[in-house]
Amino acid sequence: MNKIFMSGNHTFGEAAIRAGCQCYFGYPITPQNELGEYMADHMRRENRVFIQSESETAAINMVIGAAATGARAMTSSSSPGISLKQEGISFLAGFELPAVIVNVMRGGPGLGNIAPAQGDYFQATRGGGHGDYRTPVFAPASVQEIADLTYNAFEVADRYRTPVMMLSDGMMGQMKEPVVFPEKIEKLPEKEWALKGRGDGPSRYLCSLILDALEMERHNWKLVRKYNEIEKNEMRYEEYMIDDAEIVVIAYGTTARIAKGAIKRVRKDGVRAGLLRPITLWPFPRRVLADLAGRVKQFIVFEMSTGQMLEDVQIAIEGNADITFHGRPGGVVPTPIEFARIIFREYQKVVKK
Amino acid sequence: MKLKNPWPKYYKKGVVTHYCPGCGHGIVHRLVAEVLEEMDLGKRAICVNPAGCAVLAYLYFDFDVIESAHGRGTAIATGVKRSRPDLFVFTYQGDGDLSAIGTAETIHSANRGENISVIFINNAVYGMTGGQLAPTTLIDMKTTTTPLGRDPKYDGYPVHITDIVARFPGVAYAERVAVDSPAGIRKTKKAIAAAFQTQVDGLGYSIIEVLSPCPTNWKMTPVDSFKWVAETMTTEFPLGVLTDKRSKKE
Q1: Residues B175, B179, B181, B186: is their CA dihedral positive or negative?
Q2: Which ipTM value was assigned to this complex?
Q3: From the CB of residue B180, how many other CB atoms can be counted at a distance below 10 Å?
Q4: pTM for the whole thing?
């Protein structure tokens, strides 16, 4: 396929359609409206399902219904709307139903604003809804990666029967970049477990209610075994100029892009800086970081929040290196010069040692 | 004369329900199973069961069932039906589920004219949680959260959600019935069949409100509770067809 110029929000939609998304349900919220609008046009044209629901809550429950029949289903929203979807995400986890949920993050808490932010990291990686579950989280850092990871999100969702979150932000959603879409998926996986009416076979049901505590415990541990498999097989990250680095930046999504620009800048001044960019926020590249901390003694965490991924970095590094945090919450997008100054300043500490 | 009373094909055998003596759920469950069998819909039926007393309905129904979060039944049913229009999709919900926490889902699925059916059990209380005030609780009726009786100035008035949705153009059939007597039970079965046929004919949303006894939470004997449905509940919620737009559709 040819390279085309497209916004992140439209790319989520086009990639989902090409990945075989049969049903999309959503509710308008800035800064992701273009995604719903794209689906309203293109899903209907392809004779697939698009519904503008009465609420985010209804949308995620429509996703549950469609996913229960075996359809590839998706919903999208931005931070306050994603909070409303948490009930449904917990049920998807309990039912073990696959679905893709896109969060184009904005400033918060509350209504916050409509500018790019990364304040939903805890919500995305710690479950968000109630109960003992995990959600794989993909964090694209370019429009091309939005396309690639959306395919991947549907695959992971189906393979493990789990809701998957795409964690993006207003910058990623609104930005236009060249993108080449992967081949259209023509054959979708068979889903033996899907409800399609009993036919001549035995009746089946999908439920998350397990009144017997011991049985519920067994279900919880069964989910954990699945999450362990996901941690083993699906963790992704990118290393950038890390081989000779004496100072390493950890950042994801939009912040990682800005950090790359900053690293290019300070490299010109002889600063040996590198970047480790988690592509999956859960599973988090914990072991990679732990290994890195054997050699690198200074890390910098950049986030458009007050420090959420920071905690995962702290857990991974276990006190074996110094961590400096710099965050810009509330919808403020930092600049490469701002990051470069901080990298340069922290590098002086490394050199002095 | 030999009584004809075979066990319904789509009702599990040898299972004892958890419902209290005199509860209306068992009756309506059976009616649903009978109608699905008579209309030959059981093989392609998917029921969305609620959070509430009927949360375990899938242990009794012998067709495919998906559980719903409290109130979200018709949103899930929308997802199922839109994804697979060839399936027969209905929800089975209580008054708290459908007309309190799920009001938005009820109103908007009805307004979209989703081609689904809704079986709405109205027993004027929250049953499973122990008899609290429901949107449908009658004025002056005592519940665990209206110990002095429902005071409309403080607690508001009974919600008539079926009357509300019956006004929507997308709602093809709405009827209120009561399982208060053998005649009422026969009428209820007819109403359920009418609703199901509405969906089979692709005419849109159908809803059957069933006034149903809850002796445990009403603190009455089963016999008194059936009488209370017939004599008291029907004064607040009159029985009858609330809308029938079936003939006007093509």
Answers
A1: positive
A2: 0.96
A3: 25
A4: 0.97
Question: Who among B42, B87, B108 is closest to A54 (CB)?
Answer: B108
In the block, tokens 């808490």 appear at A109
Could you tell me which CATH number the domain at B25-134+160-244 has?
A: 3.40.50.970
Instruction: Find the CB nearest A198 among B64, B75, B79.
Output: B64
Q: Does B84 sit within 8 Å of A58, measured CB to CB? A: no
Instruction: Examine domains A4-197+204-233 and A237-352 and report if their fold is the same.
Output: yes
Of residues A303, A316, A14, A70, the one with CA closest to residue B64: A70
Residues of A in contact with B15 (CB under 8 A): none
Cis peptide upstream of residue A28 (ω within 30 degrees of 0):
no
Q: Which CATH superfamily is domain A4-197+204-233 in?
A: Thiamin diphosphate (ThDP)-binding fold, Pyr/PP domains (3.40.50.970)
E strand or H helix at A220: helix A213-233
Q: Which residues of B touch A (CB under 8 A)?
A: 10, 42-46, 48, 55-56, 58, 61-69, 72, 75-84, 87-88, 104-105, 107-108, 112
Domain A237-352: assigned CATH number: 3.40.50.920
Instruction: Work out the average pLDDT over A285-292.
Output: 98
Cβ(B157)–Cβ(B237) below 8 Å = no
CA distance A177 to A169: 15
Give B184-208 pLDDT, tens digit per residue: 999 999 999 999 999 999 999 999 9
Domain-wise residue ranges, chain A: 4-197+204-233, 237-352
Write the DSSP string, B88-133: EEEEEEEHHIIIIITHHHHHHHHHTT-S-EEEEEE-SEETTTTSEE
